[in-house]
Each structure stands twice: as structure tokens, then as C-alpha cells.
Design a protein that fits this description.
The protein is α+β, with helices and mostly antiparallel strands. It has helices spanning about 50-65, 85-90, 95-105, 130, 140-170, 210-220; strands spanning about 1-10, 30-35, 35-45, 70-75, 80, 105-115, 180-185, 195-205, 225-235. Strands 1, 2, 3, 4 and 5 form a five-stranded antiparallel beta sheet that branches. Strand 2 (about 30-35) and strand 3 form a beta hairpin. The longest helix has about 35 residues, at about 140-170.
């Protein structure tokens, strides 16, 4: 039977009541090797349901183990053909997983999201009329160049905003995190507003610094233009390769 993987943890965190129900009402079981354990559950049928309830159940199982100590969380629908493949995965990655669990011990992930409006003129290229000549309808080459200019100009602006916000947060939260990652993207059209972008930052924070991190966030929120949101603490999804 195929196996759905939730997370990998140290076998020392396996004490206590471990009767946990996973996706599809299947009991969570454990495959262990050389001090590491993989939390898994069986999968029947050709596909795992990709519905909200299944995803909530999946992440609830992960959070249950996260409360016990350091874990390596995996993304939803990480599948293995059978239990032998799970054991092989633990054997192959034993050193890397052991080191990673040590680094993640006592750490949580805190997320910051910034939603801001992109200026309208970012996508409006200023083309010299001396060279544009005829209208875009009769000059498809010029129309194409304008569109490409607008695309690159907009993407460049988004990356500049991500860099600026990342550097600002890195400075403001100095001493409160061990690592951080960032990403930025356009948001889909919302209420006829096509100019919203989303910048997401992920911080690896010690559990004892969570409250200080929240206080600093509230201070920073008053200084930033745009809508800022704080989430966490979460399992460190963005600081593992899975």
C-alpha cells in the first residue's frame, strides 16, 4: 500500500499517546531507522483527495508532532509506493535529517506578508514619439516592444520592492531570527484592482523570542505603507527541502 508522509522526527519525541488519525481516517503509523522516525498513513485508491478537509487534517497531524519537538515537515501529498521506500528514504538521508533536526530544535516559522498597490505608471512605458511613428495597430512591432517593456518594468519594480522590504525587515528584526527567506508576486485581480502585489517573508525564530518578534512587528507595521499581516508560529515548512 502507498504511504503518505507527514514529517520526520527524532525517535526520542515518540513518547506518550500517539493514537493519531490522519488523512482519509487512516491511523498514523511510524517507520523508524537509526534514531529517526517517519510519520505515515496508508493511502487507498489512485489519488489522495485534494480537498480542504484533507489538507486541514494533514497539517493538524504535523502540528501535533511539532508540539513535541523539532520536526521536518513535508508538503501535502508526498507519497511513497510502500513502507520499504520510506525506510530507504530515512537511510539515505539520515545524516542530513539528523543535522537539520538539530538546527530546527526549539525553532518556529513566523510569516510576514505585505500587500501593496503597484503604481499605475510602472506598466506605462514612455515611448519616444519620434521613433514610434504610426499607431500600435499599424505597427505591431512597436506594440510588442511596449508590452515587453511594461512586463520587464513591472517585474523589476516588484523585485525592487521585495529587496527593499526584505532589507528593512532584516534590519528591524536583527537578533530575533536565525534565517529568513522572501518571495514576491502579483496578486490576481481583486475587486477590479489589478495593481496589488504580495511580498512574503519567512523567519526562523527561537520559541522564546516569539513575543519580542510580535512586538517588533507591531512597531514596524506603523512605519510601512501597505497592509501587513503576521502569522505563526508554524512548523518550519520554508526552511526544509522536501
Amino acid at each position: 500500500m502507498r504511504q503518505l508522509l507527514y514529517c520526520v522526527l527524532n525517535s526520542s519525541n515518540m513518547e506518550g499517546d500517539l493514537h493519531i488519525i490522519g488523512v482519509g481516517d487512516k491511523p498514523v503509523q511510524f517507520m523508524c531507522d537509526s534514531g529517526l522516525c517517519a510519520a505515515i498513513s496508508g493511502v487507498e485508491g489512485p489519488e489522495i483527495p485534494f480537498d480542504v478537509n484533507s489538507m486541514i487534517t494533514y497539517h493538524r497531524v504535523i502540528e501535533n508532532f511539532f508540539e513535541r519537538g523539532a520536526i521536518i515537515p513535508f508538503r501535502f501529498r508526498t507519497l511513497f509506493n510502500d513502507e520499504k521506500e520510506v525506510i530507504a528514504m530515512l537511510e539515505q538521508n539520515n545524516d542530513n535529517y539528523t543535522k537539520l533536526l538539530s538546527k530546527l530544535d526549539g525553532m518556529v516559522e513566523m510569516g510576514i506578508r505585505l500587500v501593496k498597490a503597484k503604481p499605475l505608471n510602472v506598466d506605462s512605458p514612455q515611448v519616444d514619439t519620434e521613433f514610434s511613428g504610426a499607431s500600435d495597430v499599424s505597427n505591431p512591432g512597436m506594440s510588442y516592444l511596449k508590452k515587453r517593456w511594461a512586463l520587464y518594468s513591472s517585474e523589476s519594480w516588484i523585485q525592487d520592492q521585495k529587496k527593499e522590504f526584505s532589507e528593512k525587515c532584516s534590519k528591524e528584526f536583527d537578533g530575533l531570527f536565525a534565517n529568513f527567506k522572501s518571495e514576491a508576486s502579483r496578486l490576481p485581480e481583486v475587486q477590479n484592482n489589478k495593481n496589488l502585489i504580495l511580498i512574503s517573508l519567512y523567519f526562523l525564530v527561537r520559541k522564546d523570542l516569539i513575543q519580542e518578534f510580535r512586538v517588533k512587528f507591531r512597531e514596524l507595521k506603523c512605519l510601512i505603507t501597505g497592509k501587513m499581516l503576521l502569522s505563526g508560529p508554524w512548523p518550519p515548512y520554508n526552511f526544509v527541502v522536501s
